[in-house]
Amino acid sequence: MDFYKTLELILEEKEVQKKFAHFSEFYRAFENKELEFEENFTPKKFTKPSYADICTTVPPQQVPKRSNLTQKEGQINLLHAVAHIEYSAIDLALDAAYRFQGLPREYYADWLEVADDEIRHFKMLETLLRELGSYYGAVSVHDALFEASQKTQTLLERMAVVPRYLEANGLDATPMILKKLKKLPKSEMIENIISNLEIILDEEIDHVKKGDVWFKYACEREGADESIYFEIIAKYYPRGFLRPNDLNLEARKEAGFSCSELKVMAKREVC
């Protein structure tokens, strides 16, 4: 089985269950060292996300609000939004393994492990959506994560933007969602949502850490100072770090961020 060509087929697969089944077979073959890394493979630059035929996409500001979380509609909107992040993260992890060649085997092992985690997260959330009588694709979504993958076509920029910025922002946002949920009247669904989000938050720290490791690897390989991180983020996200007062400092430190980096993000001494 060819490594890159098979990954390309998985990335382009439009049917969710087929995609997951194909990945499971592929991942098992990778772990058993049954895959061949093709030489001089040219990756595609995808023009649309794999979920294009599943979801209706709209500008981010038009995605349904996640309010009234005691009501079914609010719960569906929240679960769908997080499920979409996880589904997008599956393709981001797969694309990280597909797009960048000639790297240590540990690099590919890391991002395939992340993809496997993200599939499990998506399935957890999809189960709750179905319990509420909904499904993935029932609510409109945005393409921000897919667009980030299209913009970042070097290893250095990809590792800076996707795990160390976008996924790291989730380390800040999820605790705030959990705090809001824990103030609501208890119900089985609310407790299940909280449990799922806590699992995702804990495991996303490791995903950001993997990005940190390979960002630093890319810096060393290219002879770049690690401070280039802030130049890259300013290039793509001029507004910078949107939650300086809500940084999840402990999670970010565990994921590899230095105190000097956190000081810049928080605009104050933090550790």
Write the layout of secondary structure elements.
Blueprint: H1 3-12, H2 16-31, H3 72-99, H4 105-131, H5 144-151, H6 155-182, H7 188-222, H8 228-236, H9 249-254, H10 259-266
Helix pairs in contact: 1-2, 1-3, 2-4, 3-4, 4-7, 6-7, 6-8
Descriptors:
0% strand; single chain; Ferritin
The total tally of domains equals 1
CATH domain class name: Mainly Alpha
Give a count of the beta strands, DSSP E runs of length 2 or more. 0
Main sheet specs: none
- Give me the secondary-structure category: mainly alpha
Helix content: 55-70%
Poorly predicted segments: none
> Mean pLDDT, rounded to whole units?
95
List the total number of helices: 10
Series of H and E elements: HHHHHHHHHH
Q: Tell me, what's the shape?
A: globular
Distance between the termini: 48 Å
